Amino acid sequence: MPAPLISVSEAQERLFALGTAVATETVPLAAAAGRWLASDVCALRTQPYADLSAMDGYAVRFDDLPGPLRVIGESAAGRPFDGTCGAREAVRIFTGAALPSGTDSVLVQEEAARDGDSLTLSGDGPVRGGNIRRKGLDFTSGELLIAKGERLTAARLALAAIAGHGALTVARRLRVAVVASGDELVAPGASGAPDALPESNSVMLAALLADLPVDILPLGILPDRLDAIAAAFAAVDADILVTTGGASVGDHDLIRPALEAAGGTIDFWRIALRPGKPMLAGRLRGMTVLGLPGNPVSAFVTATVFLRPLIAHLSGARAAVPVLRTAILGAALPANDRRQDYLRAQTRDGRVYVAQRQDSSLLRTLAEADCLIARAPHAPAAGAGDSVEILALP
Ligand SMILES: Nc1nc2c(c(=O)[nH]1)N[C@H]1C(S)=C(S)[C@@H](COP(=O)(O)OP(=O)(O)OC[C@H]3O[C@@H](n4cnc5c(N)ncnc54)[C@H](O)[C@@H]3O)O[C@H]1N2
Ligand code: MOO
């Protein structure tokens, strides 16, 4: 008698509870892209460090305009003017350069007429205090900029760099072992018997994790033999062991018994989810084991809903579960049953349309989808124009 189905959120919570966060390391900024921060990033400097010009032009005293003014020197980024500007004096200034003392506004060069050292206003001119980036406009030294548990995007890395950091403390990369199982499977591109099936899950999973800080250990294809699967499991050394196939109830679905034969434990099996119902999770030595269903779309959905969040969670992510967005439905949907549904859908003219065929073997509909419509268990029927929740696909 199979175990009852548990909800997606319960499965996520139980999965997260199976492992402990990985160790941290301090790495140069360039190696920190896409990692999760293990400690807060505070500003080590003030940005800008002083009042700076936002334009190329002339630093002036607003009350002296329209001139004429005498140009007494130059301030460039990295080479500030070290004197003081007096009445009816101006300093040639460039974008990013410190505003000389005595000046309060920047006149852009397009609105100035210069003749030797003499300068006069030739356009509208600045407002008082115009064209200046004030000291600390972006942040001041000591301010919290990026909190522990946030992911290091390109923008956050740039922020850390300009805040004075050359290295950051992040979760170490995770090792994710990926193995397929099934006697029918052959490597993609290999010539096989007519009933041989190209193994598509491993390449899909590797691509699905390509933006995450993980090292993938590809373990290939295992036959449908308990001893072979258990022996392979016993030899794996990783943080997460991901299997695909053999998770269901058939005589050749051997992941659960093989995990137990290798000394592992099953924490849960079977989720109120479509596609992806037979997913299982457990432990083997120090590893979290995730047994994804073999059907390619089921493997994709469970990897999206469980594997990617698990990696984020073990890396110390503050928010590990993907955020659903709201979209407008293009065509009616019937009421849902007890399983949480992730329906392949396409966005056209600002509305989402569910693919006609949703069988979990159909990779073509997955490849053509740009989002999954998430439907809660027992969601009532929905009509065109109603709001639905979607998970955008990369
Ligand atoms: N009597 C029942 N049968 C099934 C149930 C059930 O509840 N009772 N659940 C069905 C559901 S839902 C799913 S999903 C599948 C998942 O089964 P398995 O995880 O055991 O997967 P397999 O049987 O090994 O394979 C299913 C399907 O996918 C193909 N496959 C497997 N691995 C790969 C791969 N790496 N690349 C490409 N294709 C793969 C395999 O050839 C099968 O066609 O079970 C239902 N059955
Ligand atoms: O859950 Mo299966 O993944 O419905 O085909």
TrEMBL record:
As cofactor, the record names:
Mg(2+)
Q: Which InterPro entries match?
A: MoaB/Mog-like_dom_sf, MoaB/Mog_dom, MoeA-like, MoeA_C_domain_IV, MoeA_C_domain_IV_sf, MoeA_linker/N, MoeA_linker/N_sf
Q: Which reaction does it catalyse?
A: adenylyl-molybdopterin + molybdate = Mo-molybdopterin + AMP + H(+)
Q: SMART domains, alphabetically?
A: MoCF_biosynth
Q: What is its EC number?
A: 2.10.1.1
Residues of the MoaB/Mog domain: 177-313
Q: In which pathway does it act?
A: Cofactor biosynthesis; molybdopterin biosynthesis
Name the domain of life this protein comes from.
Bacteria
Transmembrane stretches in the record are none
Keywords carried by this UniProt record: Magnesium, Metal-binding, Molybdenum, Molybdenum cofactor biosynthesis, Transferase
Functional note: Catalyzes the insertion of molybdate into adenylated molybdopterin with the concomitant release of AMP.
Q: Which family does it belong to?
A: Belongs to the MoeA family.
| Official protein name in the record | Molybdopterin molybdenumtransferase
